[in-house]
């Protein structure tokens, strides 16, 4: 048996990936395609492989998905080591490995240190806003001031170019920092809110991006015509939105029911006895299989836990962009 | 917060890894240490992440383990795409990613295309032989003639330097090829057997390394003083050894009970009503927590399905060897 010539393996560093993959509409479209593909027959997304490392105050998650119509699939490794900041290191890291969907051969290794996860997570918020937020959004708010809080606002602005925004966070100095960064990226007028309620009540889009384990968004705060994207609850035990708010919403949507029921907002809501039935997944709405927002006055909530489908899509997107730019180093197989 | 300087990421190709990591006693010792560590408190080995891709006649497995006393852990991705030979490509591929056990930072990417999996799998067979085979082994046999069948015999010879050996396989030409390769590597007199029974009945060590789904090794063939290592059953549905042989053995050992019960020889044996209790794991024997072979006349069977612990250990071993050799390319984080 002669061995066919095989293409080299492309290695890309974080710097190369940052240059090739900005947070833009192309990233949003790639992520949207992932959600649609996930709703199609033949898509496969196994449960997250998760390993707790309590001695190191750490954990590692591995996510993947095989999506019909994609030439490749990614396997993403996300370590989170929460004592790292004491060492001057980031808590979150990781890489993505890209494999041919036809042969299983390694095509590329994306040494992104978690950068592409940030992009695909923010892009998923934009997909949710595109399909679920009211058409007219004057004001958006974010609860939280971390990297993802900032990126979520910038991503939402790509699809709903709001003129004003609010940031609330427990630390006002960090909130001010985040507001300045979002304002600089979007050109919108972004201010710091004194309370979460002040931020929420003025806004058509509300993003929750905190590590909270008790609700920061209460049920009575959501007037008609609001959309909420919750993306802080990516771990067991987290909870940002009061279960009553989920119960009261006209539409609750999640990225993956099995994940949302285990570690998303859906978990606390179901523990409180709400939402016993199967909610729609975002991909089913993108694919036209289930309905999204029905009226401008509806209250919608999208619960994002982060899926391997997004990883496969952003990796394919990044690899195409890097190849087009001639970036990276090709190693012999 | 200032960022501490972080070490670069080392990228190693298959050629570099083949040069740095031969199948030798150092690889066997590294693998043995993995089994011992797996039996210690604090070891963690989550269930294998497995994704079937029937459209491509493929599958992907992800394995990992965190082992006390190891500075790093590996996450290994093993794609198996079984139509690849038609394309002139190998069925099995993959890579290992190595992470710091203290910070979760990526330390290295081992682009081994499955080479290190072959090494750690063969090395596990040698660990089993070291702890379970009779002290005096004149003759060893292997059923199967693939890469792993050959490497298992070569590895067993490292710990039990047999003078004679037998190879049986359905295809006599491939059996002859395997016999020549094993003879060349070990210096032993290796012959092709006409039947599996001929190979088995003459040998103190018997290795099964076939993809069979019906038993190739029957119960009545195992005279006193035999050790069998079964390493073909690494997938659901495979079965190399008659359940009655497992039931009749003085000692049945596996690498991981949860895996052996799902996809090892233990599965078929339990379906037949044998071995209902928890058998010892190889690591418990290496660590001195449970007994191995008690008499020279005992019949022992070791059922290997392949563990993430071996992957972590061989990756650490390979990384140390590559660093000592100055191999690989260091990329900026």
From TrEMBL, chains A, B:
- Cellular component, GO annotation: cytoplasm
Q: Which residues cross the membrane?
A: none
- SUPFAM superfamilies with a match to the protein in the record: NAD(P)-binding Rossmann-fold domains
InterPro entries for the chain: NAD(P)-bd_dom_sf, ODC_Mu_crystall, ODC_N
PANTHER family under this entry? KETIMINE REDUCTASE MU-CRYSTALLIN (PTHR13812:SF19)
Q: What is this protein called?
A: Ornithine cyclodeaminase
């Amino acid at each position: 048996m002669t061995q066919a010539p095989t293409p080299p393996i492309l290695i890309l560093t974080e710097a190369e990936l940052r240059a090739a993959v900005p947070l833009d509409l192309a990233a949003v479209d790639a992520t949207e395609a992932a959600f649609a593909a996930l709703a199609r027959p033949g898509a496969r997304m196994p449960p997250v492989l998760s390993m707790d490392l309590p001695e190191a105050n750490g954990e590692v998650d591995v996510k993947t998905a095989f999506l019909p119509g994609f030439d490749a699939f990614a396997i993403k490794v996300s370590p989170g080591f929460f004592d790292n900041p004491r060492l001057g290191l980031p808590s979150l890291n990781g890489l993505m490995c890209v494999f041919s969907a036809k042969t299983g051969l390694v095509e590329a290794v994306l040494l992104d240190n978690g950068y592409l996860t940030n992009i695909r997570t923010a892009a998923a918020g934009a997909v949710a806003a595109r399909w679920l937020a009211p058409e007219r959004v004057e004001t958006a708010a974010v609860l939280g001031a971390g990297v993802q809080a900032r990126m979520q606002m910038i991503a939402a602005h790509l699809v709903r170019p709001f003129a004003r925004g609010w940031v609330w966070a427990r630390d006002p100095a960090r909130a001010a920092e985040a507001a300045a960064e979002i304002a600089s990226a979007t050109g919108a007028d972004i201010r710091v809110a004194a309370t979460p309620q002040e931020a929420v009540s003025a806004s058509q889009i509300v993003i929750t991006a905190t590590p909270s384990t008790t609700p920061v968004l209460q049920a009575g705060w959501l007037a008609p015509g609001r959309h909420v994207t919750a993306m802080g609850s990516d771990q067991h035990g987290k909870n940002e939105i009061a279960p009553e708010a989920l119960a009261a919403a006209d539409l609750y949507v999640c990225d993956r029911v099995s994940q949302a029921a285990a570690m998303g907002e859906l978990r606390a809501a179901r523990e409180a006895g709400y939402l016993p039935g199967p909610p729609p997944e975002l991909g089913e709405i993108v694919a036209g299989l289930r309905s999204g927002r029905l009226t401008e006055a509806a209250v919608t909530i999208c619960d994002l836990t982060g899926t391997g489908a997004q990883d496969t899509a952003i990796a394919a997107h990044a690899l195409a962009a890097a190849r087009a730019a001639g970036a990276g180093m090709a190693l012999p197989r």
